[in-house]
Amino acid sequence: MKLYIYCEEEDFSALSEAFDKETESDLNLSAEIVITDGDEIRRLNRELRGIDAVTDVLSFPSLNLKAGAKLCKKDFPADIDEDGNLFIGSIAICRKRAEEQAEEYGHSLKREMNYLAVHGLCHLLGYDHIEEADKKLMREKEECVLKKIGAVR
What whole-number distance in Å separates Cα of residue 92 and Cα of residue 71? Predict the structure, then answer.
């Protein structure tokens, strides 16, 4: 399985490669990442989640996937894009918030942008962090992918 990440503002090719073999699938996946400003992510957060605040990342899954489930082409006949990939959704990342968090946590902006992208991608793949057990599973997946690209804390 290959994950294609489409982003005009940032190069996430290393992250794309790091996701190889992280999801069991008989087809390639694709996702879109848009880098935005505080006003736009606040608008999205307010209009789509009812939360009138700037946030770091928002995920918009196109499918209702279960974390860790095998993805089979036969289960998604109407969701394959023109390149033959399964489109799993879109992610919006606020660059200003990422800059603030990178400084706050004492690591690079590149590490923070990759973390936010991984976090968003995990959500697109059905991972969540509401329940403690789910949060642990999601954090393990995030750290595994980040380790592959050398973006650990």
Answer: 24
